[in-house]
Amino acid sequence: MRCFGNGDSLYERYHDEEWGRPQRSEQALYEKICLEGFQTGLAWITVLRKREALREAFAGFDPDVVVDLDVAPLLADNRLIRSGPKLRACVRNAAATIALREKGGLVDLLWSAAQVPSPVHASWRDTPASTTGSADLAKALKKAGFVFVGPTTVYSLMQACGLVNDHLPECAAYARAEQERLAVPA
Question: In sequence order, what DSSP letters do the residues of the chain get, joined into one string?
């Protein structure tokens, strides 16, 4: 049983192979911040369907490249989510990611908010949209110069990157995600 994603192979693959699994590289976490920002106001499947084009446009989400990108040509690329504020947020968040390197880095900042153990939810209705932890992390990210990082977006980021395991207990991915989270060094 899956928590979500049934019926679309791209969504199923994302659920089974990626969502909730610990991400510990700066580039992977920066990508997730950008993707969660793109998701604001859209269905996640829309972001997944445009992800490869976004990866191409943003040099694999390498912050050292993205920081110098001109978003004007990207606004004309119909393969992308063509929101000026969201595209510019990726550039601004690249600069914030680079600046954070002098203060311990994006990985340390995000993982300082990991919830161990994760809460257990009986259903999706019981899964929060945000928490005090995501609100605190959103404030820390904003203070560090990030944009499109409100408490709800940050909670989605926490779920996606394994900072919290919100797979339902009966989900086939629950135990694996929790085991991987606990195995990640602090």
Answer: --SS-TT-HHHHHHHHHTTTS---SHHHHHHHHHHHHHHTTS-HHHHHHHHHHHHHHTGGG-HHHHTT--STGGGG-TTS---HHHHHHHHHHHHHHHHHGGGTHHHHHHHTT--SSPP--SSGGGS-S--HHHHHHHHHHHHTT--S--HHHHHHHHHHTTSS--S-TTSTTHHHHHHHHHHS--
Instruction: Work out the average pLDDT over 155-166.
Output: 95
Catalytic residue among 11, 19, 44, 155: 44
State percent of the chain over pLDDT 70: 98
111 as an active site residue: the answer is no
* 19 part of the active site: no
Task: Provide the pLDDT for residue 119.
Answer: 84
CATH number of 9-183: 1.10.340.30
Q: Which of 11, 14, 19, 155 is catalytic?
A: 14
Catalytic residue check, 31:
no
19, 26, 30, 36: which is the annotated catalytic residue? 36
pTM: 0.95
